[in-house]
From TrEMBL:
Residues 6-132 form the Response regulatory domain. This is Response regulator. Keywords: Phosphoprotein. GO terms for biological process: phosphorelay signal transduction system. It comes from Flavobacterium frigoritolerans. It holds the Pfam family Response_reg. SMART domains: REC (SM00448). The modification 4-aspartylphosphate is found at residue 62. PANTHER family: RESPONSE REGULATOR RCP1 (PTHR44520:SF2), RESPONSE REGULATOR RCP1-RELATED (PTHR44520).
Length: 137
């Protein structure tokens, strides 16, 4: 059975990538996670791959990255055509606990929710599972 979601992890830390992929696979039973190293690669992945998938796209986006930050990604994402942005949910990952940055993240119209790093399993499930209605695979 084909998954209802395609996952794209935009994260520069190899350790965080490993942890998040394992959480997706072990806790939410996600079978495949696409991963890139920064916002620029994330935009390129969407442009190159989005039309190949009919499923909804779930993006897990780090904020602090070299080359193109998560905030810069969101600006570039806004410039993409509607057919590339359709049925997409973006979950922002950040170790920043600066109140203004969190407010800025949550105000963005494309951001579904925010997860703080390091990611706790309970928060991960509480945020992702209800939003994706338990239809992950």
């Amino acid at each position: 059975m084909e998954s209802k979601y395609v996952f794209l992890l935009i994260e520069d830390s190899d350790i965080d990538k490993l942890v998040i992929k394992q959480l997706l696979k072990k806790v939410l039973e996600v079978t495949h996670v696409n991963a890139v190293n920064n916002g620029k690669e994330g935009i390129e992945w969407i442009v190159d791959n989005r039309k190949r998938y009919t499923q909804s796209l779930v993006i897990l986006l780090d904020i602090q990255m070299p080359i193109m930050t998560g905030f810069e990604f969101l600006i570039e994402y806004d410039k993409l055509s509607d057919d590339l942005r359709h049925e997409t949910q973006i979950f922002v990952l950040s170790s920043s606990l600066v109140r203004e940055e969190i407010k800025r993240i949550k105000r963005n119209r494309y951001v579904t929710d925010f997860l703080s790093k390091p990611i706790a399993i309970k928060e991960f499930v509480d945020v992702l599972y209800p939003t994706l209605k338990g239809e992950i695979g």
